[in-house]
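Researcher: I need the complex structure. Ligand is iron/sulfur cluster. Inputs:
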Amino acid sequence: MKILMVTDPQMCSECENCINACKKTYGVARARKTDTIPIFCVQCHPDKAPCRRICPNDAIETIDGEDDEILKVNEENCILCKLCMIACPIGIISIDKEKKSAEKCTLCLESDNIIPACVEACKDNVLNVFSIEDLQELKNDENLTEELQEAIKTFKSIS
Ligand code: SF4
Ligand code: SF4
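Model: Output:
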């Protein structure tokens, strides 16, 4: 089941709780703040993700045993060439200096968190996780904000 995170930037109070929660969970934040709002990996389709396609050592792979199509960095294969950081269109790949590896968001699917740490930490309801099936239903909801509708359109165009 494909899972993705949809953000509603208009609701953001710029408290950075999401980024701090990510950093607390993984040691390095896998999201970053722009001048205004935080941005997150948009979970490109595994066959199209620029970070995966450019990696010379096949270090970016889908999470083992899961049919979720979310990519993670395999620390053992990462040679820290940083090409993925250049290739990612939103510059969201970070470096874990201790592990000597690139790091990317996995929506916490490789941890014990049922809800991603950032989503749980956000008190402004900016962040939400959906399955594709959820989104199909949401598309018909007239109460959706324009931003959320726009986010859904963007996701559909890259997936
Ligand atoms: S830094 Fe690591 S994950 Fe990124 S492209 Fe290089 S080997 Fe691949
Ligand atoms: S790290 Fe960048 S290129 Fe890779 S899946 Fe996320 S948004 Fe796409």
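Model: Summary of the prediction. Strands lie at 3-7, 32-33, 38-39, 60-62, 71-73, 94-96, 101-103, 127-131.
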